[in-house]
Amino acid sequence: MATAETFNLGFIGAGKMAESIARGVSKSGLLPPSYISTAHRSQHRRDAFSSFGVKVFHHNIEVVEASDVIILSVKPQVVKEVLLELSPLLSEDKLLVSVAAGIKLKDLQEWAGHGRLIRVMPNTPSAVGEAASVMTLGEKASKEDEKRIGSLFGAIGKIWIANEKCFDAVTGLSGSGPAYIYIAIEAMADGGVAAGLPRDLAFNLASQTVLGAAAMAMKSGKHPAQLKDEVASPAGTTIAGVRELENGGFRAALINAVVAAANRSSTLS
Ligand code: NAD
């Protein structure tokens, strides 16, 4: 039975995002998987959740009935239809959390029929406890709700609060950002192979280098430009590589990628 610290958590939309949050939450020990539920028609998706102990129902209605906190994790295009269908069951007794990109609190409130809502933009590294998430509170969400969702997403990574106006930019940066870095890892590993390394070693070195650089950026207290300057000695190897990145428009490509994804997010609502 749910206590003040534990609660029943339900996912409407048993896709990749829901799975990575559910896996992260159960791995962290914040909630046992038996407190988590979802529903899906496809056996493949059902198996993905039941394999780590999550209850899998046949219908969304059963998920809502079983949950104190409901995470809406369907694609943005179907959020309205799903909420309108479930709205008779969505009372203020149940905190509704949406992770759908581009769908605003005011629309969620209208379709759900109440304002006890929190909008969160997480990312898929939640599956390994390293999500970067941002939340914004609906008008009826309480301090307790903020705390509960802060610890839920805090159990699967880091979470910040921001004004809803920032959400398209957040989506473009941290929501979509893992894909940019996967490409960087793949390309760095290809570079290693091109320079003579075995594929496995190249891939592991590229991945650990990204992890290490991110840890330095988060923990050293230094500006990334300073960290870069510190590893670029005169006429050295690193500055030769940096020069090629600048020639290839690396900075501009990343800036444009974030802005393009943010713009796309603003067209989804
Ligand atoms: P996904 O396609 O993997 O998952 C969506 C799931 O919802 C699918 O399994 C689909 O079958 C199911 N579904 C469709 N209609 C349904 C209905 N009526 N009732 C119940 N389930 C239904 O997509 P995803 O990548 O997991 O994205 C889900 C949400 O998370 C999106 O709104 C997206 O904007 C948001 N999000 C995703 C990421 C990401 O990196 N994938 C990051 C941040 C936010």
Automatic annotation (TrEMBL):
Record-level GO BP terms: L-proline biosynthetic process
Keywords: Amino-acid biosynthesis, Cytoplasm, NADP, Oxidoreductase, Proline biosynthesis
MF annotations from Gene Ontology: pyrroline-5-carboxylate reductase activity
Location in or out of the cell: Cytoplasm
Domain Pyrroline-5-carboxylate reductase catalytic N-terminal stretches: 9-102
Pathway membership: Amino-acid biosynthesis; L-proline biosynthesis; L-proline from L-glutamate 5-semialdehyde: step 1/1
An annotated GO cellular component: cytoplasm
The protein's Enzyme Commission number: 1.5.1.2
Stored Pfam families: F420_oxidored, P5CR_dimer
Binding site for NADPH: 60
HAMAP family: P5C_reductase
NCBIfam families tied to this protein: proC (TIGR00112)
Family: Belongs to the pyrroline-5-carboxylate reductase family.
Protein name as it appears in the record: Pyrroline-5-carboxylate reductase
Species of the source: Cinnamomum micranthum f. kanehirae
